[in-house]
Amino acid sequence: MDLGAALIAIVGVAGTLGGALLTQRGADRAKQRELELSRAIQEAREDRELRRRTYTDLHRDARQFATTLSRHLYVMRDRAVADEDVRTLEEAKDAQRNGWSEAIMIAPGEVLAAAQEVNGALTRVYGQVKRQEQGNPRPGETLQTAAEAQQALWPLIHAMGDAMRHDLGVPGEIRATLRVGETSRVGVQDDMPGAVQPGTSRRFEA
Predict the structure, then answer these.
(1) pTM
(2) Contact 76, 135 (CB under 8 A)
(3) CA-CA distance, 196 to 173, in Å (whole number)?
(4) Contact (CB, 8 A) for 164 and 104
């Protein structure tokens, strides 16, 4: 074999090996991109699931705290507050506070702003209820004003829920998805002790 033929053979072998190497590298890069994309999708799913669980817990606990405040007002109106009543209220407060602490760490701005408004309103109503319970209300505070403040919690809780649904990509608003006949059962209209009903003038009385 002359030198020229040998060089051609060497170049051919090198080209074949080089092509195979480039093909392998291309396949490796494609596989790496696929793995990174799969990992990103999985992380996004896990993040969404974490937010969904946190939002569900916080929304539920905020509603439960608001409802418990209402029940506590009924108790204060109708009889002496027992240790069990105090314990139930404190447990509801603690659950909501824990959920709020978790939400602070993961909720985006829109959800966090709505949740902060709910947290602040719940805290203020709780303070007013406890001052009534302890017989040390501030000027102008009565059981009626506490009940009215408690009733005003519901629009804020609904707005928080709507912000959570929007962040999770769930269409529609909470109030719009509830049938009119269900509103009283979820505490929207009738949760306030002594709430004034259409056609009446009844007020909350201690």
Answers:
(1) 0.72
(2) no
(3) 26
(4) no
Residue closest to 69 by CA, chosen among 119, 126, 120, 115: 126
- State the SS3 of 6-48: HHHHHHHHHHHHHHHHHHHHHHHHHHHHHHHHHHHHHHHHHHH
Distance set, CA 98 to CA 14, 61, 70, 112, 138 (Å): 66, 9, 21, 14, 28
Residues 6+ apart with CB under 8 A from 56: none
Answer whether residue 73 shows pLDDT above 90: yes
Residue type, 101: S
Residue with tokens 């009844």: 202
- How many helices and strands, by DSSP H and E, does the chain display? 6, 0
CA–CA distance, 103 with 62 (Å, rounded to integer): 12
**Encoding tokens for residue 145?**
């004003």
pLDDT tens digits, 36-52: 777 767 766 777 899 99
Q: What is the mean pLDDT of the chain?
A: 81
pLDDT tens for 106-132 read: 999 999 999 999 999 999 999 999 999
CA pair distance 203, 195, nearest whole angstrom: 6
Contacts of 136 (CB under 8 A, 6+ apart): none
| Tokens of residue 129, six digits | 């209820």
